[in-house]
Amino acid sequence: MNDVVSLAAELIATPSTTRDEGAVVDLVSRWLVARDWNVTVQEVTPGRGNVWASRKGGGVTLSTHLDTVPPHLPPRREDGRLYGRGACDAKGIAAAMMVAAERLVAEGEQRVDLLLVVGEERGSDGARAANQLPATSRWLINGEPTESILASGCKGALRVIVRTEGKEAHSAYPHLGRSAIAPMLRMLPELDALPFPSDPVLGPTTVNVGLIRGGTEANIVPGACEAEMMVRLVGDVAPVRALLDGWAKGRAELEYGSFIPAQHFHTVPGFESAPVAYTSDIPLLTNWGKPLLFGPGSIHVAHTTEEYVREDELRASVDTYVALVRRLLA
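^ that's the sequence the OP posted. Answer follows.
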């Protein structure tokens, strides 16, 4: 279980979709207690919680999440790859951090903590709770699949629901009603032409319309329609909201949901760096130190049925986590 690939496979074999992480929390906690870590399980909701393992404190915290998207996919090893749900997002990363922390302690470095949270895939309730813990670290290395490159920054995220209203009528007499779907179909293509902000590091703001719901039956003029979209932010949210408010004015109602700001991260000379487009728990862990983002694997296979991480990359990431911790503490 000190072999990172074997440990990752054990974590992957333990189902832990968001809101059902209890079994993997227990596995990780027992692994750490058996190796003399000071372990705190912070209950987030009944039966599930964050795992905080510490030694001396005051140094670097290695952190990632233990939950996964559904469905559970058991581990398998094939052609030098470890497959399964969480292989790269983010149980392989958790295993690499655990093994790296153990190596650092064995070599005499006590200023390393582990923070393994729940709930990242659906609202990050684990990270929100973890930020209330009495953290002492000066640096936070968060783990997401960055293809083993330090992330120089990541885009933020803003959820928006667009609603249009109509008037129901029998479809044989459409003039007696007013379609709620028709104006939505006219509005959504206009998003591509809006002058959203761009950033020299993070690139352009992007908008994904991920869900559309409208109407009740094909023979009824639809009285309501809504679209849910995710905006990937590269800077201040205010100009984006102003653009969307102007776009919708007089035509639709907007409901703004969860918001995570764009981030620029610390990088280390000698380690390759590049920006990423997805978000992480970092904006919610402000009390844990100056942030870095690094992890093995590719986001392009995360959340897919063929999720995997290369075994050689997973092993190499242990060395990189050790090296990063040592550089930050030097």
